[in-house]
Amino acid sequence: MLGPLALLACTLASPPQDSPTHLGSWMHTIHGLTTPSSVAVGPRQHIHVVETSAHRVRVFDKDGKQLEVISPGADPMCLPLGVAVAPDGRRLVSDSGNHRVLIFDTQGNRVAAFGSLGTGPGQFHTPVGIDANREEIVVADRGNRRVQVFDHKGTHLRTLALPDAERGSWPSDVVLSPDGDVTVLDAGGSRVLSVDGDGTWSFLGEFGFFPGTFATPQGLGRDGDKLLVTDFENHRVQVFPFSAIMPPSKARSSVASPNYILGIHAIRPREGRGKMHYPRDVAVSPDGSFAVLVEPWDGRAQVFARAAGAQPEPDTQRQVTGQAAAHYGMHLASDGPILVIVEPETAEVLIHDIRQPRPEERLPPILVSRTGGRGRRLGLFRQPTGLSIDYERRSLLVCDTGNRRLHELTFRHDPDKEIEQDFEMVSAVRMLDFQQPAATGSTELPWSVKPIAATTREDGTLLVLDGANAMVHEYNPNWEYTRSLGGHGTNANQLEDPVDMALAPNGESLYITDRAGARVVRWPLGDGEAQILGAGVLKVPHGVAVGGDGRVYVSDSGAHRVLVFNQAGEEVARFGTRGLIRGSFDSPRGLVFNEAGELIVLDHANHRGIIVSPDGEYVDAFGPRSYIRPAQRPESFNEEDYSE
Predict the structure, then answer these.
(1) What is the C-alpha to C-alpha distance for residues 204 and 191, in angstroms, rounded to an integer?
(2) Beta strands in 143-243 (DSSP E)
(3) Maximum separation of any 2 CA atoms in the chain, in Å
């Protein structure tokens, strides 16, 4: 005889055939994943999860039991970002760091590969989402802002350039709709696109926080005639009929009401069981009986079963808000008494006063102003990233990656006055638009400059790190282009996937983190030899900072720690493990020293900043209370309080 729980499970698993159903009954969670960024479910109901930082794909059964690890040894993957399972069971992986697609058979053997770095047909710049039917393979070619279509031999068939490129469009995922149309998730434009065989584009959505709008959507899933969209910064999945994607001639608005919304923002650390925290991708089993959602920052995949009813029951214990939760981003800068941090959800820069007027009572960084917001005008941003501040000049540089621009802002601050809020302290001064030909003089580049970090030398020379072309561009104090350094490659004077840079204290060299190369390179700005640091030690480097003594600090987001190198490039220290307690990080990103010589670490996935001594000893934490409490009060930390 079945007990009450078994009867309930049967009811959830097998709703009446004629009644409406939805994918929304949480079943279980697969924990312990390493940056899960993409998911697919194959014909045998096997769950394929891309672990980007571990450079592999893990395969599980429906119950979460590991079945297989796909990780070719002789020619390894590098930062894979997409996975699909073809109808015949072959597995396709977007090997993004190597700018190619890999194909594995049902036994996990690599049987084919196609693609290379470039702009031509069949070439890629950071391929991400991928999908396949019996005839075609479609790939979201993020760096080239397009989608490419291939046959199953890897032969290029056609290229689909995204419309309205001025929106800052870039594709993050693709699916083939039931009728064979290509559906594209335009993360940069916060919309869904679809193109039919005649080349007609249809649209759904725009930027926003309310139902039918998206905030940096990342992944697509298909459930029969319905489309699932992971709404990354809104912490939810929205479900629409494919018919909601309509050409402008037939739609009054690009915004349509979803059939239902799955999930609600997780508030406390590690909260799950249907609550979501930056969902990246979603996939539905071929028979439609369950869906899988991956969340890279929490290292997990949540599995949902089909349940009775047209939509999930509302959570009566928590109200749904109409605005995305705002958290620290990956970038920060500090000089003198000022600390600035990017807040990506609002496209703003947060300005903090970090003075300590009473040494006996340590103060956290105090928010005194904020500037920016989403837009295209001077002083507004679409995707603010790298920052640089010069307190003496009262100058703040902001890399606006989404608009391909660099903004200079000026601010007022009196160090002799008491700490006070001043939300009019910042003014925009000038802007360097990298989409204009004069931005790089007569130098022809394969890709439009993607500014991701910037700094200024003592003489006013501006240096901009270009993530698209793997270069550093140099400008005189009037922002006139002078030269470029680097380019794509694996040599010491080249880069594969740069993410951050720092100027040496003497201003004579640059340290640049190369994520795909798993290394740091030091480039002399005058004479001298380039140097490589951390090769064979770093997993996924991100932030870099140089102390007053010349030691180089690197955040390794893949290993959740900070490594320290001396001027000879030798590792001399490391600190940090994965977790919430004192001495722990989760995907640490930006690094900077304050004027007291302390290191500030953006503990990104833990939504907090951690302040440590140059030797890694804990000093303080700042950010949301539930995330900083385990660090500030380790004696009261209880692991069970932070379990799912």
Answers:
(1) 6
(2) 146-150, 156-161, 171-176, 182-186, 191-195, 201-204, 219-223, 226-231, 236-241
(3) 82
For residue 601, which of 470, 500, 517 has the smallest C-alpha distance?
500
The CA-atom distances, in angstroms, between 480 and each of 77, 139, 433, 440, 474 are: 39, 38, 12, 8, 8
Give per-residue pLDDT as tens, 274-295.
Answer: 899 999 999 999 999 999 999 9
- Domain coordinates of the chain in residue numbers? 34-308, 341-636
CB 23 within 8 A of CB 308: no
Distance CA(224)–CA(195), nearest Å, equals 18
Q: Give per-residue pLDDT as tens, 94-104.
A: 999 999 999 99
Of all helices (H) and strands (E), which one includes residue 6? helix 4-13
Per-residue pLDDT at 269: 86
Q: Are 205 and 214 in contact (CB under 8 A)?
A: yes
Question: What's the CATH number for 341-636?
Answer: 2.120.10.30
User: What's the distance, Cα to Cα, between the start and end of the chain in Å?
Assistant: 31
Rounded to whole angstroms, the Cα distance separating 629 from 81 reads 33
Question: Do residues 174 and 192 lie in contact, with contact meaning Cβ atoms separated by under 8 Å?
Answer: no
Q: What is the DSSP letter of 488?
A: B
- pTM, entire model: 0.93
Whether residue 524 contacts residue 503, with contact meaning beta carbons closer than 8 Å, is answered with no
Residue 17's pLDDT band (boundaries 50, 70, 90)?
A: low
- Give the Cα-Cα-Cα angle 588, 563, 488 (nearest 5 degrees): 80
Domain at 34-308: CATH architecture: 6 Propeller (2.120)
Mean pLDDT for 561-578 is 96
Same fold, 34-308 and 341-636: yes
The CA dihedral of 201, 206, 210, 215, to the nearest 10 degrees, is: 110
Where does 357-493 have alpha helices with state H? Answer: none
Torsion from C-alpha of 627, 629, 635, 639, nearest 10 degrees: -30
What H or E segment, with its residue span, contains residue 91? strand 91-95
Whole-angstrom distance, CA of residue 622 vs CA of residue 365: 7
Residue 10 is predicted with a pLDDT of 45
Dist CA 418 CA 357 (whole Å): 8
On the question of pLDDT at 340 being above 60, the answer is: yes
